[in-house]
Amino acid sequence: MPEQQVLPLDAWHRARGGRMVEFAGYQMPIQYTGEGGGIVAEHEWTRNHAGLFDVSHMGQLLVSGEGADAALEALLPIDLSTLKLGMQRYSLLLDENGGVLDDLMVSRWPRDVFLVVNGATKWDDIAHLREHLPDDVTLNHLQDRALLALQGPEAFAVLDRHATGEYPLSALTFMKFGLFTVAGVEMAVSRSGYTGEDGFEISLPAEDAEKIATLLCGEPEVKPIGLGARDSLRLEAGLPLYGHDLDTGTNPVSAGLMFALNKSRREAGGWMGHEAIAPVLASGPATKRVGLIVEGRLPAREGAPVFAGESQIGHVTSGGFSPTLGYPIAMAYIDAGHAADGTRVQIEVRSKRLDARVAPMPFVPHRYYRGEPR
Prior knowledge:
Layout: H1 10-15, E1 18-23, E2 26-32, H2 39-48, E3 50-54, E4 59-64, H3 68-73, E5 88-94, E6 100-108, E7 113-117, H4 122-132, E8 138-141, E9 145-151, H5 155-162, E10 163-165, E11 177-182, E12 185-190, E13 199-205, H6 209-217, E14 222-224, H7 227-236, H8 263-268, H9 274-283, E15 287-294, E16 305-308, E17 311-322, E18 327-335, E19 344-349, E20 352-359
Parallel strand pairs: 3-14
Antiparallel strand pairs: 1-2, 3-9, 4-7, 4-8, 5-6, 6-7, 9-13, 10-11, 11-12, 12-13, 15-18, 15-20, 16-17, 16-19, 17-18, 19-20
């Protein structure tokens, strides 16, 4: 694993006032400076218009060869027989104890299965996959590709001005993908993202990333957005972040990710971690990932203990102030007996106890495009 890697858009970010921080082995923009900049402004711009995120740190992998589906099904709790061409699905890479090694996206390409894995775990993921995939199955790491995410209610209008393909961009609904051309650049476009908003993730040659980023940010609806707003947007959307809300110490049932365990695979098994997870599926988890609404203005951060009376019942895994809602929110793992919506708890922050209550997620409703009339 390289000690320090460089994004294809590194110079592009710096030229636009990107304040760079270390993340997943890269220098990445946490926000952009200048008039009207800052994390809250970028958050609100994405909620109301369209933001462009550089997520090229993530790993893009192609799995191919005879028996590729069966080999992947031995590692992922996914039913690939129902994943048709042009479809995408959320899945999990698990260890033998049922712990989460990573969460990822799986897409059916014309001749391959395409995986997008987290940047902080991609080298470990690649090593794990290569260790367990048979010799007849090939794993290619597409290091020559960039990944951009165009997110927000005006994302479709912007991309639709430029994208051409064998069918209109409007034919893509949530969790579908297709091959399109923008300004002469061929790209794979999925209608998905990490903000809870409608939007797209765009896989394209790294050498063309600057051209396409400049084109999209030249539209009045689009601004570049950094990691800070990406985190606050995904928190409002109730989406877990690997290394914080998910890790090898958590299991998919406690994490509330049952939808990632395809029903037929839950029953049939045959995937890594099933034997450890089966008893949890049968009896229910001891802890659950929940949303918390915190009273007052002081946010609860990762690691803050959660109490019911004098008993600690869990801890916060992600937290912050919600720009959209105007009050602090958090995710936490707490004892299942206290996880019902509306349950009153307290969070210890700076030696103070903050009142909070369990709340359903997402905190801000998702606005994915599922094919409803515009």
